[in-house]
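Provenance and format

Records in this collection were gathered into a single text stream. Each protein contributes a sequence line and a token line. The two records reproduced below are adjacent in the stream.
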Amino acid sequence: MSFLPGNGQERTEGEGRVEQAEAQGVDAVQDAAAFLAAIVESSDDAIVSKSLSGIITTWNKAAERLFGYTAEEAVGRPVTLIIPDDRLDEEPSILARIQAGDRVKHFETVRRRKDGTLIDISLTISPIRARSGAIIGASKIARDISERKRAAEHQALLLREMRHRVKNAFAITGSIISLAAHAAETPKELAAQVRGKLLALSRAHEITFRESAGNEVFQEKPATLFDLLANILAPYEIHGERQWRLSGDNPEVGAEQLTNLALLLHEFATNAAKYGSLSVAAGRLEISATVREGVLDLHWVEKNGPRLPEDCGHESGFGSRLEQTVGQSLRAEISRDWQPHGLAIRLIVPAEMLAAD
């Protein structure tokens, strides 16, 4: 038996142990509550609690960062504070599910920050119960998914663009084969013509993509007229020295007309390699471009090439057929001048056609 200090009352050792255990239990509960509060406060996700009437009761630091309101500004106010007007019907539905004891998982919606900007968030909402088991409120965990949504939308856009391009590529390939079949005299010649055009298209489209980064499927970059010409003319170098020179304006070429322009310029280069200045070591090619008053004016001038045949202005093969088809798509004007030093081509294209995406 022992005595309580100071008042002379007796107590048993068992009673002392019970009181000590109770005190330790209270301390443990307080420690657990403090630990839980620390976790909530340090969480990267916004954690908010509210009453069944929709009044905010707690608001952690992440909620301050996400929504822009301090805890002092938010606690005690209706949760509709952060709900856009066109989403107000969501709150009664959520409260009804919580009162029924349901848990709402990964509900994607939109909320409004203090500055008025809208953010995409994912919500997980759970009932808060009293010790008796009665539901007295709800806790919300909100995660900002704006970046994820933007990335998904961008990826979907790129995939749509890829499908569009693949569809166009098949259509153009069919046209190339059809045109070549009319002009080629042997299967070998047909294969060579088709292979050359497809390689030109491959090089043209390759310059419009950069290396993938992060979780991007691919990234597109602008292609310019000189990028396109440099890729098409790259094979025509002798010991690392170019037979060609580019000068003047260098407009960007949109994805919509990149293929058509690549086919047309490849046709010019192929003919120059067969019959013109790119067919001999001394040959040179000067290409200048000017964009003025909404029009691209491109001059393709061959020099020091072999003597051209007298009837070279009356060709009716694959090249001229392709030029007619592609020229119509570009709304282009193409003229030729067979000069003593070589062929001069003038290509005029509305600038709005080049920029089309």
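Adjacent record:
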Amino acid sequence: MENKWGSLTNNNVIACVERNTGKKLTGLCIKRNSYINRVFELEDARTKERYIAKFYRPGRWSRQMILEEQALVFHLKELELPVIIPLKINGEALFEFGGIYFTLSPKMGGRALDEFDDERWEEIGRVIGRMHLATEKKTASSRVTWSPQNATAKHLETILASKTVAPDFDKALENAVNAFIERFEPFFTNAAMFLIHGDIHRGNFIHRPAEGIYVIDFDDICIGPAVQDLWMLLPDTVENSKNEIKCFLDGYTTFRPFNLKNLELIHALRVMRMAHFAAWCAVQKGEPHFERSFPEWGKPKYWN
């Protein structure tokens, strides 16, 4: 992994983008923050237009999975949803450098969203409702199904295989996660599952003046319940977020119904997110600067 990432020097990034897209770039190459992938800002030598080159982490997504992500955002764009699509060069939007897939998109800056008022909650509800209306019939995918038996079981395998669990905690962790899967999988079996964004949180929205809210970062699309694209936005528990949920659903149900029974899945989805994060950390553990960013992860206190 690190050997492949090490090949992404500024010169190589510029050269491979020029070679694959036919664009002539300046020497500007600014590395942007990204935990999972490698992202660079580049500049067109002729127009001075700025681009974002996104290099996907090798081994995490197959070509088919990335093409499915692209097909979704192109479809949403055709329906005039507020998403950012990659550039197509000679009909292609996915390129490769040394075994690393990458895309090129126009740079579209925007303001991060902080606190939401009632109007903002409704606006976000309308955006997610429109998005789900466009995807609700997509029930098959190369992506993971976001249920305990599928996603959480795979995350447990990843964690245990990484040998990062503190001594004397591995068996307890395995037992606890398996008990969780057995208890909560039936709740997901009875829920409507379809293609969703999968990672809706405040950091995956930007606001562009005179244009409104854009949804970004479709890396983690999956087959899952509609509520997965709501719960991480909530400021507190379901019981303490009743007004936020009401305003969100006022906007959401403008476009499609929302089964309120889905809200019962949130407690399980929180546990699934913990397992997802632990598996992500187990994979990232060997990356430079990981321990500086997550100093407590993997220690006995964390596992306890």
